[in-house]
């Protein structure tokens, strides 16, 4: 299921093909592919000019224009997990430094994942149909029972909110 790097890769590969074009027709395949009345949305989207394809988090945003009126089409590529960071409240200098280090590490991983075109663990493909290559760098996901590449401790798997989570109990302590 696509996470932020895969959504950004899809945006980057589709933007050159979509921006500046006009939507000629829209058809929703299933009942859960559109919020609201699908036929009304199909009619409303027809003839819209795509000004820009953007991304906000794990959502694709099509900035549209028709007859001088601007609109926005929000697209989600299905259910995915979320990382929640809470920056509220006062924090000590050491806590702020740890948070800054953690945020820098997350940003580096996201840059690397986007640079590699995302992860194609199952069926993910970018806007050109090309699989991502970042999954080759994954060190613990899907590797329960195998030795951690850093310390040799067996990787563990937990089920959290119906999602599989893999971790090294030695390297990734609470």
| CA(first)-CA(last) distance | 26 Å
Q: Report the average pLDDT across residues.
A: 83
Number of helices: 3
Pattern of helices and strands = HHEEEHEE
Write out key terms for the chains shown.
174 residues; alpha+beta; 3-stranded antiparallel sheet; two-stranded antiparallel sheet; 3 helices; elongated
What's the layout of helices and strands?
Blueprint: H1 4-18, H2 38-45, E1 49-56, E2 59-66, E3 69-76, H3 93-115, E4 156-160, E5 163-167
Antiparallel strand pairs: 1-2, 2-3, 4-5
Structure characterization notes:
The protein has 174 residues and is of the alpha+beta class. 26% of the residues lie in helices and 20% in strands. The protein is built from three helices and five strands; from the N terminus they run ααβββαββ. It has helices spanning 4-18, 38-45, 93-115, and strands at residues 49-56, 59-66, 69-76, 156-160, 163-167. Strands 1-2-3 form a three-stranded antiparallel β-sheet. It has a two-stranded antiparallel sheet with strand order 4-5. α1 crosses α3 (93-115). The radius of gyration is 20 Å and the shape is elongated. It starts with a helix and ends in a 7-residue tail after the last strand. Residues 83-91 have low confidence and may be disordered.
Report a brief summary of the structure:
Helices cover 26% and strands 20% of the residues. With 174 residues, the protein is of the alpha+beta class.
